[in-house]
Prior knowledge:
Helix content: 40-55%
Largest sheet: 5 strands, antiparallel
Number of strands: 9
Distance between the termini: 30 Å
Number of helices: 10
Strand content: 15-25%
Shape: globular
Strand order of the largest sheet: 1-8-3-6-9
Amino acid sequence: MFFESERFNISQIVSIAYYEPSCDKKDIYTGCLPTYELMFYTKGDTYLTFNGKRIHMRVGDILYLPKGIVNADYYVDITEKFALYNVYFDTDEEMPQVPIHISSVPNEVGNVYEKLYNEWLAKKDGYYFKSVQDFYRILEMIKKHRRKYNTKAKFKCLAEAEDYISCHYYKTDFKYEKLHALSGVSYSYFNKLFNDKYGMPPVKFVTHLKIKRACELLKSGTFTATQVSEMCGFENVYYFSNVFTKNMGISPGKFKNLSAAQSNAQ
């Protein structure tokens, strides 16, 4: 979902930092990360370990880290001096719970990071709005780079399955078993590729699309929960209500009423 969605709401930028360790050491971070992080490496070559995943970070690389992972075993082996920009942020969206490493983004991404950091430090009038704008610009640039990267042969076999998801995720006859068949690879390898690209398994991705569509329909105020359930391809309204509540924290009825109240208050 992250870097893939065309509609993505950053609820808050908490802080922006430029980090450059002064000596060789192992940096160890304890406890859960309180915010999501999106960092850009400007100098050096180092290895980072997060929740059992070892990542080789080089100049021009982007790294997303999720918040709230218990006992993530997060540390950095500093073999040479390195430096990075880091944006600490929160979002209204459901985020991947695994780190996402993107190699060799364009140099202009680093230029926007530097601009964003300087704006944040200066704190001039309107700085926060400019910072949010620049952060969205960074996400847009990463998305374009990631799309180009994902056209490599490794992910080409996903194309027909992705088209099938786009055209059928909201239908009751959606069949998950068709995905790997359309890709011409095994079930396990398809799931691995899909996870590599989207940061989540196909079932969770499709559920996210269904819930996102359901939210749009409920916000319109036109449709009942039963109608929305049918329009989003759920087996019945009871199953829809359970899945919606689990993902959104409130029932479809309460979500619809809350959306209507917010709309009337504006």
